[in-house]
Specification:
Layout: E1 9-14, H1 19-25, H2 27-33, E2 37-42, H3 57-77, H4 82-99, H5 106-113, H6 120-137, H7 144-155, E3 172-173, E4 185-186, H8 193-204, H9 213-227, H10 234-249, H11 259-263, H12 267-278, H13 283-318, H14 324-335, E5 338-339, H15 341-348, H16 352-364, E6 369-371, E7 379-381, H17 383-398
Antiparallel strand pairs: 1-2, 3-4, 5-7, 6-7
Helix pairs in contact: 1-2, 3-13, 4-6, 4-14, 5-6, 6-7, 6-10, 7-10, 8-9, 9-10, 9-13, 12-13, 13-14, 13-17, 14-16, 15-16
Amino acid sequence: MTGMWPAATEEIGIWRVSGEIRDYLGNHRAQRIDGQEFSRTIPPRIANLNPLTALDSATLERIVEATSTVREFEATAKQLPPFMHSVLLRSESASSSQVENLSASARTLAETEIGLRNSANAELISANTAAMIRAFSLESPITVDSLLAMHHELLAKSRHINAGRLREVDVWIGGSDFAPIGASFVGPPPELLPALLQDLIDFISSPALEAVPLLSAAIAHAQFEMIHPFEDGNGRVGRALLHSFLRRSGLVTVSPLPLSAGLLSNTATYFAALNSYRKGDISSIATVFANAADNAALLGGQLAREIEDLRDGWRQQITARSDATTWKALDQLFLHPVVSIPLLVQELHISDRAAGRALTQLSQLGIVTQSGRDRRQQTWQAPAVLALLDDFAAHAVMLRADPAVS
């Protein structure tokens, strides 16, 4: 017999239209929403709860199976060349952004990262990569301050005035842009955020959760999303938190499990499970994460194999024809599928001449193609790598149509 997980409660608020919104809407439209009631969600405190007491045996069995799959992924990841860990992390970052309909091609992302293109989506995804790197690299215990640091990394370059700060206003999902009237979810009031986040941190830090890290990660993520501590970026920070937690738990240590790619296989079920969690149901979010972990291991393993096959083929091509710099430049293509001479000089600590010679050799072999007429903005791209990265998220979405992996 399982116990009950506490559901969120509601608090009635009265909406007051600000002067700025009143000026924008006009008095007549503003009066229609001013003074109306709305319901805020008040998350329960979970620091002293054990999710095992509220989980049915069938769902627990799924969690155990998925955990075994993740351990197999971890064993494989330990055998990968070091650059693959960064490739998986960047792919996971792009998938996490895509969950929220933020997408950009691999080429656009690569060109934005080296300053050749201005793309709002690509800049947000690049910032998400930095936030995820911070999360996965976190050595100290997870704290409220580390969550704020992740958020600052995520939004500092997006002209977001509250990057790295808890929100001081109401936030909601659904309804209108001007009021939470009729919204499907309204976050807790700002004054509760510090205590709610500390409660979550205490939950994450509980020794009782060490035996079931995947289950604990699912619940911690759902609780964080219910707290909704920021004006924007809650989903991306919440998924970055997953990687920090799973790494500290020891379940994954060298490469991030591409969980967001796994979630992409059925985003509707993921969002529905977050809603069910607010009602006290932890089985739905646990099942979603078990399925996502299975899909993530499948997708991550497939990407790793495809990149290793591509790399092996390239290495056979250049074996007898290139110097050590060309070998080093080859692996840089997986980290930066669009490269320039200045980038290779910076990353490999070589001269302009050596970088140019390596790119010429790779170009002659058909591994890279040159673009850009202006010598100052000449770049070389690796079409095969760009195609693999573009296919990664597409494969994640395609999984939803395959009942064998759903």
